[in-house]
Amino acid sequence: MREMREMLISVALGQVLSLLICGIGLTSKYLSEDFHANTPVFQSFLNYILLFLVYTTTLAVRQGEENLLAILRRRWWKYMILGLIDLEANYLVVKAYQYTTLTSIQLLDCFVIPVVILLSWFFLLIRYKAVHFIGIVVCILGMGCMVGADVLVGRHQGAGENKLVGDLLVLGGATLYGISNVWEEYIIRTLSRVEFLGMIGLFGAFFSGIQLAIMEHKELLKVPWDWQIGLLYVGFSACMFGLYSFMPVVIKKTSATSVNLSLLTADLYSLFCGLFLFHYKFSGLYLLSFFTILIGLVLYSSTSTYIAQDPRVYKQFRNPSGPVVDLPTTAQVEPSVTYTSLGQETEEEPHVRVA
């Protein structure tokens, strides 16, 4: 009973993230279509500034090894790369809407799932069971059902000016999202959520500010500023900040793979809102798609994954200043930690402190 409750909680947490993405999508749609404010970099810049003000300043006032300067001395170039990856992932997917159709974006954006699985397998050493792959396939079938419903009700059309360019942008963005999500899981399991968000805020604000000045300053001057547009930017920033702040919590409780499967329902929440706000046509396939994805999530979350080697393999990101005791090579290493969609379960083995 307790495992069932924890599983349902993990699924529900993923749906909270989907609702936040729904809010991001709705505010972006109003800004671009109703007010002709095409400012994806500026919108990302606002989010990174909020992360900087909350989390980077928190790191700045900390003492010892968790202080901002101490972190920068040891790992600044790694976070610089991660900040660039995160920024460009957001930019590429938003930019793709100018070139390709909504259907293509919905389908190709699922490419993030195999990217996360492969990276988790090779770099986080996470191993999956048959039920996990069944759950993943069921989720993707549910997504395909939603795209089919879009075609039937006529929502599949988009700009489509240069479909190949748009499709490549989506694939590039999905790949970068996968890298960012797996790297995020790696950091929050070995370091801390505040460190990840603080460094993302620092480098994200820096690079998005440069990109904004170079690529988007003219678009920003064209925005017809009034209280409605201001409110939409505030709503977008609040949803994005909530997504970035809450996602590490959910990833640590579940995994990057589980989170990306949960986010497949975000388009459906946007659709259900669009039925009332934009008078979209309804199809029963949308409900079928929603429940199919939820069934896939339950299947994936019902069984634990596991780590192929001792969790001390995570030590390389930390660059410890003190000596690190290497694993003995004479004996086979057994898993001492099991990551599950219900959290982290420690087996009955001697506790080993990660350096």
TrEMBL record:
<feature type="transmembrane region" description="Helical">
    <location>
        <begin position="7"/>
        <end position="26"/>
    </location>
</feature>
<keyword id="KW-1133">Transmembrane helix</keyword>
<feature type="transmembrane region" description="Helical">
    <location>
        <begin position="164"/>
        <end position="184"/>
    </location>
</feature>
<dbReference type="GO" id="GO:0022857">
    <property type="term" value="F:transmembrane transporter activity"/>
</dbReference>
<comment type="similarity">
    <text>Belongs to the SLC35F solute transporter family.</text>
</comment>
<keyword id="KW-0813">Transport</keyword>
<feature type="transmembrane region" description="Helical">
    <location>
        <begin position="133"/>
        <end position="152"/>
    </location>
</feature>
<feature type="transmembrane region" description="Helical">
    <location>
        <begin position="196"/>
        <end position="215"/>
    </location>
</feature>
<feature type="transmembrane region" description="Helical">
    <location>
        <begin position="105"/>
        <end position="126"/>
    </location>
</feature>
<feature type="transmembrane region" description="Helical">
    <location>
        <begin position="227"/>
        <end position="247"/>
    </location>
</feature>
<dbReference type="InterPro" id="IPR037185">
    <property type="entry name" value="EmrE-like"/>
</dbReference>
<dbReference type="InterPro" id="IPR009262">
    <property type="entry name" value="SLC35_F1/F2/F6"/>
</dbReference>
<keyword id="KW-0472">Membrane</keyword>
<dbReference type="InterPro" id="IPR052221">
    <property type="entry name" value="SLC35F_Transporter"/>
</dbReference>
<comment type="function">
    <text>Putative solute transporter.</text>
</comment>
<feature type="transmembrane region" description="Helical">
    <location>
        <begin position="259"/>
        <end position="280"/>
    </location>
</feature>
<feature type="transmembrane region" description="Helical">
    <location>
        <begin position="286"/>
        <end position="308"/>
    </location>
</feature>
<feature type="transmembrane region" description="Helical">
    <location>
        <begin position="46"/>
        <end position="64"/>
    </location>
</feature>
<keyword id="KW-0812">Transmembrane</keyword>
<dbReference type="Pfam" id="PF06027">
    <property type="entry name" value="SLC35F"/>
</dbReference>
<dbReference type="GO" id="GO:0016020">
    <property type="term" value="C:membrane"/>
</dbReference>
<protein>
    <submittedName>
        <fullName>Solute carrier family 35 member F1</fullName>
    </submittedName>
</protein>
<feature type="transmembrane region" description="Helical">
    <location>
        <begin position="76"/>
        <end position="93"/>
    </location>
</feature>
